[in-house]
Amino acid sequence: MFSSASPTVSVSGVNIPSIGYGTMLFPEPEKAVTLISEAIKSGYGHIDTARKYGTEKWVGEALRFTGVGRENIWITTKVTEENAKADDFARSVYKSLQTMQLNYVDLLLIHWPQPKIPLSETIGALIKAKQDGLAKNIGISNFTVDLIHKAAQISSEQLFTNQVEYHPYINQDKVIQACKKYGISVTCHVPLARGVVLKDPEIIKIAKSHQKSPAQVTLKWLIQQENIIAVPRALSVDQIKENISLADFSLSDEQMDTISKLRSKNLRIVDPEVRRPVWDLP
Ligand SMILES: NC(=O)c1ccc[n+]([C@@H]2O[C@H](COP(=O)([O-])OP(=O)(O)OC[C@H]3O[C@@H](n4cnc5c(N)ncnc54)[C@H](OP(=O)(O)O)[C@@H]3O)[C@@H](O)[C@H]2O)c1
Fold it and tell me: Among this protein's residues, is 166 annotated catalytic?
């Protein structure tokens, strides 16, 4: 049971809070433990980190600082594509747990596809982490339609989520449909498009009509969709609280459609040349 202020998404009977706190970049690292602790105290029952972010240590410290019961918080971490070989993968998981001082994570993801290593080897290592009790659930991140099919067919275990870029300015219909076929949820990274969508006149107009902020409307638009989870980052206590306070309003079908049409802007923010797969065309 996760003591979260947000609703949950269920995959094979396992519930994850639909809003998690993203920890990718803290411009002032000395504030990281305070911010993560504030998120936990504000009702986030789900924290998103990764070996690559360098924030696992602070996540572990915040858990201990707040005294939140381990069973009350969902922790996701990820193994980078540099560690896609089975031995490296296992070492990375071990280091993540050691860094956070945890016995297990709730969700372990392959952070990016690695074309140089057979996917079956990496998926095998992912499954082994689950079978060894180091991860309660397993999944993928930045996987395209073709790779989702391959991963789901290789994996003997349910894949819990595919964490991909999703916000109002990008069309992810194909990825969402492919995930649905295998009962895989979709977790949105950069759900606020790093602030870009918050200046959109349509989003601002809808926000005003609900007396909510553009960030709240954007996050509501995401989690009001079936099997969608979002992990916004916020760097002030006010923003942290705002992003989890979504329960007292809902968007009409017309408002959902208006925001969905903004995908024609076709903005992809996370597109690193060194590791991006060949993205699906909209
Ligand atoms: N799997 C992957 O490959 C991958 C890739 C990228 C990210 N992620 C995950 O996704 C998380 C979120 O992505 P992100 O951090 O890059 O971007 P984001 O959540 O889209 O944007 C975060 C920024 O939005 C602004 N913001 C947040 N809440 C706000 C509010 N209530 N009002 C106004 N502005 C607000 C803040 O900007 P200011 O600070 O300028 O105000 C904040 O720094 C990451 O932290 C990470 O956990 C995963």
Answer: no
